[in-house]
Design goal:
This protein is mainly α and 207 residues long. It has three helices and two strands; from the N terminus they run H-H-E-E-H.
């Protein structure tokens, strides 16, 4: 059962509570719209992140397969030496973008070095070369995935916060105001009837 507010049952208080209820209902509507929009946006980012993760898992599976096949034809130490020749570095810049009033990260590769070629073609293998070629693409996808998943995390937190506020207004604040307004109206009506009865008694005595 919803408990009413502990206030004086006066017309001034009634008017104030009615204004508060109107504001609460308007706020509830706006927050509900924001929550729905956040959920739609979250699902878009989530789907993109899931697709990106599947692509990366496929890339890793293919690279692992290439490594296994290469290890059947080459010595393990030579493969490791060959892969260690890939001496790449990159610089990633992070900036923030606003989504529904929230700051979400955007990662951008602003510079990267050219991979070092194998010192000897006899130490190389076409599957190792394939792994080296796919490495930059996988790295870019990993950065994109980090961006998507961080955005999903931020949106999920905002959805939880907004949902708590919506539920608080819907199940506590607005019902509490409704109950209190009804109580005050009943008290004012009772007072009006009592006043009218007293006036009628006084009028009857005067007659």
């Amino acid at each position: 059962m919803t408990r009413r507010l502990n206030v004086n049952p006066t017309r001034m208080v009634l008017n104030d509570l009615q204004k508060r209820r109107d504001i609460a209902k308007q706020g509830h509507k706006l927050l509900k719209e924001k929550q729905d929009s956040l959920i739609r946006q979250f699902m878009e980012y989530y789907d993109d992140a899931q697709n990106m993760r599947r692509e990366i898992e496929t890339d890793f599976a293919l690279m692992s397969q290439d490594y296994v096949y290469a290890s059947l034809e080459m010595d393990e130490e030579i493969i490791k030496e060959n892969l260690q020749e890939v001496n790449e570095s990159l610089q990633v810049e992070m900036r923030n973008e606003m989504v529904f009033g929230m700051s979400v990260p955007k990662f951008e590769i602003i510079s990267e070095s050219t991979p070092t070629q194998s010192s000897s073609i006899f130490k190389s293998h076409h599957r190792i070369d394939k792994m080296k070629q796919s490495h930059p693409k996988v790295r870019e996808r990993l950065i994109a995935l980090a961006e998507l998943e961080k955005t999903c995390f931020i949106l999920a937190n905002e959805i939880r916060t907004t949902r708590r506020r919506v539920n608080s207004l819907e199940h506590r604040t607005i019902p509490q105001l409704d109950v209190t307004i009804t109580y005050i109206r009943l008290r004012i009506d009772d007072q009006a009837r009592s006043q009218q009865a007293r006036v009628m008694k006084v009028t009857d005595k005067v007659k």
